[in-house]
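ESCALATION

Customer reports they have been waiting on this structure for their group meeting. Please prioritize. Original submission:
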Amino acid sequence: MIAHFLERSQGVSSIIRAAVASFGFVYIHPMADGNGRISRFLINDILRRDGLIPAPTILPVSATIADSTQARAAYAKVLEHFSRPLMRKYADQYYFGEATIAEDGVEYNLYFNAYDDALPAWRYPDLTAHVEYLAKIIDTTLTLEMRKEAHFLKANDQARSAIKQFLEAPDNELDSIIRSIRQNGNALSNQLCKRHPILNENHGIGERIVHVVQQAFAVNGH
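Update from on-call: job pushed to the front of the queue and completed.
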């Protein structure tokens, strides 16, 4: 369904194409794990292929979807817009039984007795609500989330540069230290000090690192 639609929908709104690819993949759920991550990749893939966003830009739609309890609830609600009526209609047509290995190697124990009757729902799904939802997500990502991300990256770069004035370490290690301090309420955690003994051996360095991290993110609104 997804591939057929994408082949025939050139010229259709990129947001419609991205919504069909993304949510269609989620509903088909072909992978044992990672279906959600792949579906969000498909959003960026379609927008990139259609020329709506330039390389190497990636819209952090995952961050927008998971930004808050309310945002996560909105995502669940749009999924249920399609799935809940089907679950209600076919409540007595599925059951859990003996585990079986499918042709693709995935083990399953869910059995469904009304594939033919339910087939039109999969061939011609109404994804209007999903398109509207994705349009809002993209708008929020462009106007709010990417601005927050830019401020975060600027603050992280400033903190990293400030730490390098008195402690030399690879960027990935410095990013790990910065992340740990922020997650621990702008303080050194015991785990961080064990991983970097110098923070215990030289308390002045630890205090300076905490100070520059706190200062960098405070200046940039974090």
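Sent to customer with the following note: Residues 106 and 117 are 25 Å apart (CA to CA).
Escalation resolved.
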